[in-house]
Amino acid sequence: MGALAFGAAAAAGAGVLMPTDQRWLANAVLVVAAYAAMPGLLAVPGILLHGCSGLGSIRRAYRLTRLSFLPTALTLAFGVVLVPCAAAWALESGLGLLPGPLATLGWGLVATVLALAITPFQAAVVARQFLHCMAWRTEVHDSDLAHGLPDGPPPRPVRPSLLPAALLPGLLFSGVVLVNPFGWLEVAETNVTESWQPTERSDSSDNDPELRPFDLRDVHPGRGTGLTMVIDGFEDYASLLACPDISCRKTTFTWAEPPNANTDAAPGAVSALLPDGRLLLTTWSHQALRLLTCEADKCVPAPGSRNIARAYYPSGYTGVALAVRKGGGLVVAFADKERVNGDDSPTKDIVSVIFCAEVSCSRPETRHVARLDASAYLPDVHNLAVAMAPGDRPVVARFDTTSGQIHVISCADAACLRPRVTRPVPAYPPGVNDRLGRETGLALVVRADGRPMIAYRDMNDRATKLLDCRTPDCAQADAITLDAGGPYRSTPALVLDRAARPLVAYQNQDGTRLMLATCIGRRCVSTAVARMRGAGEGLAMTMNGQGKPTIAWIDDGGSLFRGEWALMLTTPLSLSAD
């Protein structure tokens, strides 16, 4: 009967939400319905003491409370629901302040104590309120109602020696969780948008930053244990979503590019993490590329900064990537169409490497390193990537969104005086490929021995693959298939962990699981780390301050059709090194 009452209350809330689309009104209806159902708890004593049937005991309970409905429902709501929930919340908050192992052991004990204490407390509240209603209706004292109780000997008191035995299951459970002898996957997950609804953000004013289900660009570890996510939509200004700690239950959401800062609302802001914990972010102003340095809550132009490059092609379709040099300064990879005379003239995709001796990049040095066949490069931040090899040698990777070809540009020296271009993934014939833009980019890392690794989705079969280069120039490479493909999946995310193992985050074939592949040599093991309602359009990964991979992703329940979606953070806590 309680399940039916709960279902009826939930149905009432859903019935209000569907036609009105007002969540607060649905919650109000749900609370009122639950409050109205509270006197139904008095049906339990009616069954035990008077042998009533289920429906009969419910009718009897409401007759008992007919003249004192409001105070009876309030008493039951406090004693059966609010007080136990408040006690559990207080204990949870207190245990959250303890170190991880102590918090786990504490929860094992607290859960046992709560299970032993809450149910008798709730029963006592219900029984006391039932006797009070009976006494009020019959004008007798509570003690005079003892004749209605079952006959029998008085209950034996609980012996204190039984308490350790009662606490033993909680301690055993906590010990198994801490030791994890079977290597079970442990995951910490947060719904970032749970505390502020995306629908409310989409209705915000023009002066507020906005998060939509396709605006996630990147995630970086902040100072301390926090995280910073880069948010940038199509023809919109970039913004920063910062979390003070790894749980990300509290956030700040601020503009990185204020709309009145004379910047272009171009898509695809590119970012890189500086050694001091600040964030480096690209911005466009009248087709000129500039840099911003960002804290968690604000960005300012890099000191002494100037225009780094100027785009001939529209800035939204120009490839840009950043990498910080270990010896200081940074490298900017820049790809744009060459200038030609006449619209019908053949063009090339010119890839340049821009060297900056300092973060401000006040004296950029540009060197053209490749002239590639022109292609319809789409406005996606993942079609160009750059990483630093040993000796501060830049390695650039370019993904052709028309043919699926990958170009790897490597440098034999730090100044890239002798660039070399290889094509480890060949182009597919245009007549075969009719899936323009569905596989949108790549992710690049370089190992300590100088050999690159590239995660991408193959244009031919849409499979998620990891390209393991045998040589520093990637002239020879092995393609490792991680999962079969499906349409409209995000570009995989790729990082190296502290053990120098490549980790690849991607969506599985049917878009219902978030996968994490851990690779050692040419062997990769994939594990499902989260369920998802659908394949969202945002996926990013970083190594947090605790050395764990943190994945930011979009859980899309059909946002194109006004369905619900959420920005999620998933951190696998236990990854086997085998």
Automatic annotation (TrEMBL):
Biased composition (Basic and acidic residues): 200-218
Region (Disordered) location: 193-218
This protein's name: Uncharacterized protein
Organism from which the protein derives: Nonomuraea glycinis
Membrane-spanning ranges: 24-49, 69-91, 103-127, 162-185
Sorted UniProt keywords: Membrane, Transmembrane, Transmembrane helix
Keyword Transmembrane: yes
